[in-house]
TrEMBL record:
Keyword rRNA-binding tagged: no
Entry-linked PANTHER family: PEPTIDASE M20, XAA-ARG DIPEPTIDASE
Name listed for the protein in its UniProt record: Amidohydrolase
Pfam families: M20_dimer, Peptidase_M20
Species this chain originates from: Hymenobacter glacialis
InterPro entries per record: Amidohydrolase, Aminobenzoyl-glu_utiliz_pB, Bact_exopeptidase_dim_dom, Peptidase_M20, Peptidase_M20/M20A_hydrolases, Peptidase_M20_dimer
GO MF assignments: dipeptidase activity; para-aminobenzoyl-glutamate hydrolase activity
Annotated Gene Ontology cellular component terms: cytoplasm
Length: 481
């Protein structure tokens, strides 16, 4: 609702055009050439994405994935600064100089517990726990591909400026980009492009929601659970009491609030009173202020649980992200380029594979062929969270969704992992690479577009002074341990 109000205000103020003006013919020729260039390197980029899929490295542990993307950029003329913002697997790759400065976000972390082969049946990869259930192997590769194509055009003298690719680890709960923002790495950037794997193709006009996460650790007294239970104080009781209170709290928070948790450690043996237990919480809401309020109440529940069970409690903030600040000016420009690129066309074998995967979902899904279509421009509701939200409060930001998964496939599923490891995913990856490249060309060659996007950004941010929800903590490099 907030974003819609902003858009109405901007339109009435004359800051947003109903549609971006058509680019000149030479820009159109440049865009056509860029698409051809990217497609000519399809096999190279597909192989990069597949290698990262095979690495399946979780947040802040993406050593091989980050190194491969860095090498790909260096080999193509970028200067790479590694280990930025106190994160070993983060990097900034730069080519060019001067204004405008256009950034492209790259992610490459996998999710624990989603090991899966690239087939139509649920079958984990032996010896591997994690999997790319959010398609970040494709995300990072497409962003690198777009950066390399923009560098090529810049070197040919087609336009001037600076292109930066931001290697951003641990999006899945680790809030990697928040540390990049906090370190000031976006201060001189004029606009940022990003994308995300999906089951459809659309300009991203659905805001990610704000999120705070923490691990709550309870400490009790061990004892024999049968012979001398009176001498023990169960840390697991503390966790369960906390969970019960938070679950009762759900009735008394704004209905858009999302609270979820897992017990990461509940003890070691039933006949030993647990002296340590841990629960990992996420608190989400479309507005960061509501997240702060709800999270504070969760902390109070933890404190009360410790008091009532005779245990002690401490907690560690793991992550915290802002909601995504949408930029309609940039999104409409991106929509035109997405329509120019078009969707994904599957081979007969891929269509058959897609139908097999859809049969495993357990619900009716759109036709597999829908991956070839582009969804109309629309403001929709968001659901998940992302540290891209913090970037969007630092610089005008725009993104897209590309169909890397069979239509109907949910993120964070074994079916998504399977698609991300096949040509089904790689074809959607190229839709994203081409669309981001074409939109960046507009930003490099059309100062009016950048000026309008900046005006919208400033009006939307207003007087708000950015402050990260995770505070001043150092990166939680071991949060997946």
């Amino acid at each position: 609702m907030k974003k819609i109000i902003y858009s109405v205000c901007l339109l009435s103020a004359g800051l947003l055009a109903a549609q971006p003006t058509a680019p000149p013919a030479d820009v159109e020729a440049m865009k056509a050439q860029a698409q051809q260039d990217l497609q000519s390197r399809y096999n190279e980029y597909r192989q990069v994405a597949q290698r990262i899929w095979g690495f399946a490295e979780v947040g802040y542990k993406e050593t091989q994935s980050s190194a491969l993307l860095q090498k790909t950029l260096r080999d193509n003329g970028f200067t790479v600064q590694a280990g930025v913002a106190d994160i070993p697997t983060a990097f900034v790759a730069t080519y060019g100089s001067g204004k405008p400065v256009i950034g492209i976000l790259a992610e490459y972390d996998a999710l624990p517990g989603l090991s899966q082969q690239a087939g139509a049946e649920k079958k984990p990869v032996a010896g591997i726990d994690a999997g790319h259930g959010c398609g970040h192997n494709l995300f990072g590769t497409a962003s690198v591909a777009a950066g390399i194509e923009l560098k090529k055009l810049m070197k040919e003298g087609k336009f001037k400026g600076t292109v930066r690719v931001y290697g951003a680890p641990a999006e899945e709960g680790g809030s990697g980009k928040v540390y990049l923002v906090r370190a000031g790495l976006f201060k001189d950037v004029d606009a940022v492009l990003h994308w995300h794997p999906s089951n459809q193709n659309r300009s991203m006009m659905a805001s990610y929601i704000a999120n705070s996460s923490a691990k709550f650790r309870f400490h009790g007294i061990a004892s024999h659970a049968a012979a001398s239970p009176q001498r023990g104080r169960s840390a697991l009781d503390g966790v369960e009491a906390m969970n019960n209170m938070v679950n009762m709290m759900r009735e008394h928070v704004p209905q858009e609030t999302r609270i979820h948790y897992i017990i990461t450690n509940g003890g070691k043996a039933p006949n030993v009173v647990p002296e340590f237990a841990e629960v990992y919480y996420y608190v989400r809401h479309p507005n960061r202020s509501e997240v702060k309020d709800a999270f504070a109440r969760v902390v109070k529940a933890a404190e009360g649980a410790a008091l009532g069970t005779g245990t002690t409690m401490d907690y560690e903030i793991i992550g915290g992200t802002h909601e995504l600040l949408l930029n309609e000016t940039l999104a409409r420009a991106l929509q035109l380029n997405l329509e120019k690129v078009g969707g994904v066309t599957y081979s007969p074998q891929e269509l058959a594979m897609g139908k097999q995967l859809q049969a495993s979902l357990g619900f009716a899904a759109p036709p597999v062929e829908e991956a070839a279509s582009i969804q109309p421009f629309a403001v929709t509701d968001g659901g998940g969270s992302s540290d891209v939200g913090d970037v969007s409060f630092a610089v005008p930001t725009v993104g897209l969704l590309a169909a890397t998964w069979i239509p109907g496939t949910p993120a964070h599923s074994w079916q998504a992992v399977a698609c991300s490891g096949q040509e089904i995913g790689s074809k959607g990856m190229m839709v994203a690479a081409k669309t981001m490249t074409l939109t960046a060309i507009d930003l490099f060659t059309n100062p009016d577009l950048l000026e309008k996007a900046t005006a919208e950004f400033k009006q939307d941010v207003g007087t708000y002074v950015y402050k990260p929800l995770l505070g001043d903590r150092k990166p939680a490099l071991n949060y997946r341990d």
